[in-house]
Amino acid sequence: MKMILAIIQNADRDNLTSALRKAKFGHTRLNTTGGFLRQGNTTLVIGVEDAEVETVLRLIESTCHEREVLHRPGSGALHADAYVEPVKILVGGATVFVLTMDQFRKL
């Protein structure tokens, strides 16, 4: 049995959770915050049999997309009068961890 931790952008959350429900994969949703952009994201915890891992990974890949956003580096509090040119960065997709579980119990 495997535990999949999928960290995704909030913009992709509804599409992925709908796809997981439709495919009958239970999941737990956690609201989390990324360290780089300090923006909200979603972490999904999904328990699956070994043979189902690739199916879930395909669902994640098909519903979680990269997108460009403008990001203003640095903190405005340090140099409030300095203009910092925003830069385009790529966000989204998914960061996925697949972990082996020793046990899974519903109590």
From TrEMBL:
Organism for this UniProt entry: Sulfobacillus benefaciens
Classification via InterPro entries: CdAMP_rec, N-reg_PII-like_a/b, N-reg_PII/ATP_PRibTrfase_C
Signal peptide: none
Top-level lineage group: Bacteria
Protein name as annotated: Transcriptional regulator
